[in-house]
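// run 5 | inverse folding | seed 20
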């Protein structure tokens, strides 16, 4: 028997028929599972059974399996507790029933207000010449203070910080500013929404009365409504942590730490209320003990995103090689495999993992892929993770 069969399920994010990386390319990477979503449907719409079936058959025709939906986006009305919340909740439940009826049993989603994951630099050159994604804290703040001109921003940064930010901003060219705005607002893959600065100013107004407490309440409200349906439909819900795991532009974030998870799991104890363990997102905070999170909530991990980040002294970070950076991938994979072994005895499910984001290597830049979703870079990540996993499986006695 192939010993990797005892390990995690190896998956790959595919953006659907328009993705320049085809299903047959993916077959060659070593992945057997596909992570995808019906990106052509607007946020908040019900996913019809026919559309789900069509996508599923296309995947299966290539000998692959649709392992995870990433994501069924949560409509802003649900996050803000707006007057149309119940309409969007009913749609969400219907989508879960439809996915369940088609045998798709893991859904990844997030509860980040307005923006999904955020970076300021999509082509940060590493020492070996490859390109990585980076979040420069000065760029983020310069956008906030001088481009967005958010009224409260000034009160949130110290005098010293404002000097550093101003100096940074003064050195940007006109093109740099356009690029920065695009990087933040034009939506990295997964966010499904794009905004102009003016539109963004409007949508963030909806959060004037939604702070941490209210956002948490709205998330718990969502879970209380949706988890019973997920359970009946046999669909495990896997919330993705905030990326980055701190507030942005005055918008609250409430899924950033182990305490945040604890609260959500106490409020809605069902195992169907689970998480996407994203080592790169959680690893940006030094106070997150990643192995402890796996040991504490292992049975709720329905999906794993594996990548590493390197923190910089001022709070900036960049995406490091999958096995380097601040994330101890050996410890993380060992902990995940320990959980996997328990499951093989009990439920037989395999935890799907995917190499999250990759650097741009070789001719990756010639094919227009979504930022972070290069072919070579992700394939390198997956190959390294598979090698490490094999080594652990052969040497650790679980
Ligand atoms: C980025 C992704 C996120 C993720 C969503 C999940 O590469 O990890 O966009 O898909 O946050 O809902």
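// decoded
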């Amino acid at each position: 028997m192939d010993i990797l069969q005892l390990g995690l399920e190896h998956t790959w994010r595919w953006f659907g028929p328009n993705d320049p990386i085809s299903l047959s390319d993916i077959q060659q990477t070593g992945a057997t599972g596909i992570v995808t979503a019906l990106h052509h449907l607007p946020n908040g719409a019900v996913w019809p059974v026919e559309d789900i079936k069509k996508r599923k058959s296309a995947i299966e025709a290539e000998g692959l399996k649709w392992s995870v939906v990433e994501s069924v986006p949560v409509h802003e009305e649900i996050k803000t507790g707006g007057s149309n919340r119940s309409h969007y909740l009913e749609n969400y439940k219907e989508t879960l029933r439809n996915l369940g009826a088609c045998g798709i049993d893991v859904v990844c989603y997030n509860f980040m207000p307005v923006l999904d994951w955020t970076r300021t630099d999509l082509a940060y050159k590493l020492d070996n010449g490859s390109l990585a994604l980076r979040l420069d804290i000065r760029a983020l703040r310069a956008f906030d203070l001088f481009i967005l001109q958010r009224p409260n921003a000034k009160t949130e940064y110290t005098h010293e910080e404002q000097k550093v930010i101003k100096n940074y901003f003064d050195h940007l060219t006109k093109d740099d500013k356009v690029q920065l705005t695009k990087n933040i607002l034009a939506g990295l893959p997964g966010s499904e929404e794009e905004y102009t600065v003016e539109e963004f100013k409007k949508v963030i107004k909806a959060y004037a009365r939604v702070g941490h407490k209210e956002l948490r309440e709205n998330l718990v409200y969502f879970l209380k409504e949706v988890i019973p349906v997920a359970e009946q439909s046999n669909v495990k819900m896997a919330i993705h942590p905030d990326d980055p795991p701190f507030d942005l532009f005055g918008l609250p974030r409430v899924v950033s730490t182990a305490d945040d998870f604890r609260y959500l799991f106490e409020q809605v104890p069902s195992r169907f209320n689970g998480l996407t363990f994203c080592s790169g997102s959680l690893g940006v905070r030094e106070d997150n003990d990643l192995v402890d999170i796996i040991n504490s909530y292992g049975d709720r991990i329905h999906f794993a995103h594996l990548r590493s980040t390197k923190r910089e002294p001022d709070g900036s970070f960049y995406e490091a090689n999958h096995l380097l950076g601040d994330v101890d991938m050996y410890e993380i994979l060992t902990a995940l495999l320990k959980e996997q072994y328990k499951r093989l005895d009990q439920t037989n499910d395999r935890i799907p993992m995917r190499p999250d984001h990759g650097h741009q290597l070789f001719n990756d830049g010639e094919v227009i892929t979504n930022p972070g979703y290069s072919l070579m870079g992700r394939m390198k990540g997956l190959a390294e993770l598979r090698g490490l996993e094999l080594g652990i499986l052969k040497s650790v006695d679980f």
